[in-house]
Design brief:
Length: 245
């Protein structure tokens, strides 16, 4: 990546984060060539820890790309931090509102400019008890249909040793082993030109998540379970009945 293409705040972020991650992690990296150096690319990643963005950003940056993450809009409203995120070309997502389309438009614009857009399809750290991938939201599939950009899978194992979402414990010791692997673009050609119906988007999303799950199994070993589904929330009527029982 030519340094002249990075603005001041991007270089500031690199100077702040990369030295910390270099000391904090002992890295096994594979597949960086699949990210390419030019052209728009959608990077889909599994999400096992709040440390994931730091680990994956280090991997993506050292591959020669500038990562542009889709993140919760609430983080962008945090004083100073939100301002820096905007300056570093990150993309806020307003969930559950009419403004959500703005994040799609911003992502399309980033890809048109040759950017590397990073999406956690699950939308949050996995709730699967052993940190396997779970059923995901359809944003990555929708973006792939809208742009035709390649969708590159990226899996991580080890960030949960830095911060485990199940215990909320932060591990400050240096040289924590982390493995990051990027794979060949996912073949979504059978859906090319298809209308973005709910059924189509869900089929594409499941194909993406199964690929991430199987790649993760290659790193951590074991037999991966079916994609985990969030338990359905009880309806208001059911809650009222339960409270009256």
């Amino acid at each position: 990546m030519a340094r002249r293409r990075l603005g001041f705040w991007q270089r500031f972020a690199v100077g702040l984060v990369k030295p910390v991650m270099t000391v904090w992690t002992r890295r096994t990296w594979r597949g960086q060539e699949h990210l390419g150096r030019d052209g728009g690319v959608i990077i889909v990643a599994n999400h096992i820890s709040h440390a994931d963005p730091l680990v994956s950003a280090h991997f993506i940056y050292d591959s020669g790309r500038w990562p542009q993450y889709l993140g919760k809009a609430s983080v962008f409203r945090v004083p100073v931090i939100g301002w820096i995120l905007h300056r570093c070309r990150q993309i806020p997502v307003e969930r559950g509102s009419v403004d959500a389309v703005r994040s799609l438009d911003a992502s399309i614009a980033a890809l048109d400019e040759g950017g590397a857009v990073v999406i956690y399809p699950e939308g949050t750290t996995t709730r699967q008890p052993e940190l396997w991938p779970m059923k995901a939201k359809t944003g990555a599939a929708r973006l792939a249909l809208a742009t035709g950009a390649p969708v590159v899978p990226l899996v991580m194992w080890g960030p949960e040793r830095i911060f485990d979402p199940r215990t909320t414990r932060l591990n400050p010791r240096p040289r924590i082993p982390v493995t990051v692997v990027a794979g060949e673009p996912i073949d979504l050609s059978r859906w090319a030109g298809a209308p973005p119906t709910r059924a189509i988007l869900e089929e594409m999303t499941d194909a993406i998540m199964v690929r991430l799950r199987d790649m993760l199994a290659e790193i951590r070993g074991g037999t991966p379970p079916p994609l985990w589904e969030r338990p359905a929330r009880p309806s208001a009527e059911h809650q009222q009945q339960g409270g009256a029982a």
